[in-house]
Design brief:
Blueprint lengths: L1 E9 L4 H12 L4 E11 L19 H16 L3 E7 L2 H4 L14 E6 L12 E11 L2 H7 L3 E15 L2 E10 L29 E2 L6 E9 L5 H18 L37
Antiparallel strand pairs: 1-5, 1-9, 2-3, 2-6, 3-4, 4-5, 6-7, 7-8, 7-9
Pfam families: Med18 (PF09637)
Protein name: Mediator of RNA polymerase II transcription subunit 18
Subunit structure: Component of the Mediator complex.
Amino acid sequence: MYELFLTALVEPGDLEAACSVLGGLCSMTPWETISRVVYYQGPSKPTGISNQTSIDKPMRKDTALLWKDLHQNLSRQSYILQARYDVSKQRDMGPQAVAMDLNSTPGILRWTDFPDPPHGRPLIIQRKFVDIWEQKKLPCVMRDNQYRYKSEVMEQQYRFFREETEFCLTRQYFLGSISNYTPLESRQHQSEPLATLPSWESLTPVDMQNRWILHVKVHVLQDSKPDELRKAQDQLTAIKTELEGAFELKAIDRKAHDTRVALQPQGVQALPNKVILGKN
């Protein structure tokens, strides 16, 4: 499956106006969701999802095909994956909340590929992705296949839908100290997902300017059909015209969406991420 999307930044003071515009465009009130997004980094040498011991069985046919597709892609290149869980501010966060057991809680396992070159449409990001829904024991599946816990964030979204198009306003928040967001290779100790979540009010936005990101998304199921991809591109181009004057759509470097893990040749020690030169 492919997803294609446009991007705009929305200032915090403009959220209400943005929701009003999108609500009018889609004839609906916003659907708010809160997600806990846990990132897992794959091994430097890709191995796919070879160990499927912890995956719930029996699987539906469509789910089995998704796992097969994911395994094939992760066998060629290692990536950072997402495990996504629905969260309630009142039930799951704060000092009175019950700890989330991520192995017993169903979540979505998400993989996104490095986006395709823009090919003359610089405003459109186009990439392959796999979402596997309602999966339990995702931490076990990740550990079984040498995927290490990297970091996690909370994600707040206001979503609108019009036919096949999704308009999604997103803002992410840090969970824990900033040291949890340094590269894995520079950490002295392996960390784990938080046992309990802090209160919603205590969270710090990832973006220092507290902005929202608007994504206008279209999905293409038959990604092997170029005509379907061109149709989706034309659809987003038409929506771009509709949004002129309300949102300033931006061309985003596809490297900003690069989730690939760099290959490390055997016998070669990884260099530090930063080298400081100066006088002794």
